[in-house]
Specification:
The protein is of the alpha+beta class and about 55 residues long. The protein has one domain. About 30% of the residues lie in helices and about 15% in strands. It contains 3 helices and 3 strands. It has helices at about 10-15, 15-20, 20-30; strands spanning about 35, 40-45, 50-55. A 3-stranded antiparallel β-sheet has the order 2-1-3, with no helix packed on it. The protein is globular and about 30 Å long. Bound molecules: zinc ion (ZN). Zinc ion binds next to loops.
Length: about 55
Protein backbone atom coordinates (compact mmCIF):
# COMPACT_ATOMS: atom_id res chain seq x y z
CA UNK A 1 0.00 0.00 0.00
CA UNK A 2 2.08 2.89 -1.26
CA UNK A 3 -0.80 5.05 -2.44
CA UNK A 4 -1.29 6.66 0.96
CA UNK A 5 0.41 9.90 -0.05
CA UNK A 6 -2.18 10.48 -2.76
CA UNK A 7 -5.13 10.10 -0.42
CA UNK A 8 -6.60 12.60 1.98
CA UNK A 9 -6.20 11.95 5.68
CA UNK A 10 -9.99 11.91 5.87
CA UNK A 11 -10.17 8.98 3.46
CA UNK A 12 -7.34 7.16 5.21
CA UNK A 13 -8.99 7.62 8.58
CA UNK A 14 -12.21 6.17 7.20
CA UNK A 15 -10.34 3.08 6.02
CA UNK A 16 -8.87 2.53 9.48
CA UNK A 17 -5.39 3.45 8.25
CA UNK A 18 -4.52 4.99 11.61
CA UNK A 19 -4.86 1.66 13.34
CA UNK A 20 -3.36 -0.54 10.65
CA UNK A 21 -0.49 1.75 9.61
CA UNK A 22 0.04 4.08 12.55
CA UNK A 23 3.70 4.70 11.76
CA UNK A 24 2.98 5.74 8.18
CA UNK A 25 0.09 7.93 9.24
CA UNK A 26 2.38 9.78 11.64
CA UNK A 27 4.81 10.45 8.79
CA UNK A 28 1.98 12.14 6.88
CA UNK A 29 0.97 14.48 9.70
CA UNK A 30 4.39 15.53 10.98
CA UNK A 31 5.44 18.01 12.33
CA UNK A 32 2.29 17.74 14.42
CA UNK A 33 3.03 17.22 18.11
CA UNK A 34 0.08 14.98 18.95
CA UNK A 35 -2.51 13.01 17.05
CA UNK A 36 -5.74 11.29 17.95
CA UNK A 37 -5.98 7.52 17.63
CA UNK A 38 -9.76 7.79 17.38
CA UNK A 39 -10.27 10.61 14.87
CA UNK A 40 -6.90 10.94 13.17
CA UNK A 41 -6.82 14.64 13.97
CA UNK A 42 -3.54 16.30 14.81
CA UNK A 43 -2.99 19.13 17.29
CA UNK A 44 -0.34 21.08 19.11
CA UNK A 45 -1.87 20.25 22.49
CA UNK A 46 -2.91 16.77 23.65
CA UNK A 47 -5.86 18.31 25.52
CA UNK A 48 -7.52 19.05 22.17
CA UNK A 49 -7.71 15.34 21.27
CA UNK A 50 -10.00 12.64 22.66
CA UNK A 51 -7.44 9.81 22.41
CA UNK A 52 -4.09 11.60 22.11
CA UNK A 53 -0.84 9.95 21.15
CA UNK A 54 2.28 12.06 21.70
CA UNK A 55 4.81 12.32 18.87
CA UNK A 56 8.48 12.77 19.72
ZN1 LIG B 1 -10.24 12.19 18.77
Amino acid sequence: MSDAEDKTLCALQEEGYIETDTEDFIKLIRPARHFCMNCGRSAVGANNLCNPEELE
